Amino acid sequence: MNKSLIFGIIGCIAALFISVKSCRSVQQERDRLEANQRALLEDVTLYRTKDSLSAASVEKLTLTKNELEKYNGELIKTIKDLGIKINRLELVSKQVTQTRIEVAIPVRDTLIIEHSVPIPAKTFDWRDSWVSVSGMINRDTVSCKVASVDTLIQVVHRVPKKFWFLRWGTKAIRQEIISNNPHTQIVYTEYIELNK
After folding, report:
1. Using an 8 Å Cβ cutoff, are 55 and 186 in contact?
2. 54 and 37 in a common domain
3. In the chain, how many domains are there?
4. Cα separation of 37 and 104, whole Å?
5. pLDDT for 193
6. Contact 21, 29 (CB under 8 A)
7. Could you tell me if 15 and 95 lie in one domain?
8. Is residue 172 a contact partner of residue 43, using CB atoms and an 8 Å limit?
9. 172 forms bridges with which residues in the sheet?
10. What per-residue confidence (pLDDT) applies to 33?
11. Are strands 184-195 and 61-64 parallel, antiparallel or unpaired?
C-alpha cells in the first residue's frame, strides 16, 4: 500500500511539473505572438534627429525558422546566396534608403581630341562630404559618375513597461536606424529575431 501511495505522489508531482512547464511554454508563445501582432500593426516611425539626419524606429518581430522561410522568401534567398545556413541565424535586419540631391552644377567648356579632331564638350563636377557627381556633356550624350557614401547606425534597445512614472520589465525591443548622410532618406526598416 505504501509503495503505491509513493508512486502515486511521484506521478502527481511529475504531472504537475509537466503541466507547469507546458503552461509556461504556452504563455511565452502567447507573449511572442502578441508582440509580433503589435509590431506588424505598427508603422515604421520615420523622423529627423536634432542634426536633421534621417532616422527610423521599428519594433522587433520574433519569428521561428519556419515562419521566416514561409513569409520572407526573398530574404531567405539572399541569406542562402551569402552561404549562411538558416538554422545559424540570430537576427536579420533590413533597411531601405534613398539618396536624393537637387543641385545646380555649372558646366565648363572643354575639347576632346578624337582621331586628331577636336570635339567641343562640356564637363561638370560637384562634391560634398557624402556625394560626388562628375560628368561630361558631349554632343547629344551625357555621361555621369555619381558616388554616395553613407553610414547607417543601428541601435537596438529595450522599451520598459510603464505605469505613471514607474518603469519595469520589458514591453518591447526596438531598433533605431540613423543615416549619417543628410541627402539620404530612410524609406523602410525591418528587424527580425529568430526564435529557437
Report:
1. yes
2. no
3. 2
4. 47
5. 81
6. no
7. no
8. no
9. 159
10. 86
11. parallel
Which residue pairs from 150-153 have beta carbons closer than 8 angstroms and sit at least 24 positions apart in sequence?
A: 150/97, 150/99, 150/179, 150/180, 150/181, 150/184, 151/179, 151/180, 151/181, 152/95, 152/97, 152/177, 152/178, 152/179, 152/180, 153/177, 153/178, 153/180
**Three cell numbers written together for 48:** 529627423
Cβ contacts of residue 79 below 8 Å, gap of 6+?
A: 86, 89, 92
**CA-based nearest residue to 68, from 45, 94, 97:** 94
CB-CB contact of 107 with 134 (8 Å): no
List the domain range (segments joined by +) for residue 63.
45-196
19 with 92, same domain: the answer is: no
Where do we find the cell 511529475? 14
Q: Which residues of the chain have pLDDT under 50?
A: none
Identity of residue 128 = D
pLDDT at 196: 67
- Cell representation of residue 128: 560634398
